[in-house]
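Hi all, long-time lurker, first post. I run a small reading group and we've been trying to get comfortable going from sequence to structure in the token notation. Rather than ask abstract questions, I figured I'd post a concrete chain and ask someone more experienced to write out its structure so we can walk through it together at our next meeting. Sequence below, copied exactly:
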Amino acid sequence: PIQCLCFEFVDNTRRGFCFSSDHQRLPLTDQNLLSFGGEWVDVPFYGDYITNISGYHQVQDNYSFMCQILQMTFKSGTTIKIESFPRLQRGTSFAIDLPEHNLLTEIC
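-- Answer (accepted) --
Happy to help. Here is the structure in token form:
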């Protein structure tokens, strides 16, 4: 399952989550994020913003893990897809369109 997801904004604040293998919430430090094989992905266009989030739930989400696959679509048409490895059986799909007044902006 995807155990960490972090957004870093232009003012260097971070929002997101990171859970240890024993389901404890961890601080959003570089060390914690990278220890799960994470990598930073830059938003290709400054000022671009997420308009849709979609993916697949984990089959049995008894803990604090968000999903098996997560895809973010930006106003520019760019998509960023995150998949957990090893690939486990995925659950039901989801898709959320973000209305303009709730946009996630100023991500760097």
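A couple of things your group might point at:
Strands lie at 4-8, 14-18, 50-58, 69-74, 79-83, 90-97.
Residues 30-35 form the longest helix (6 residues).
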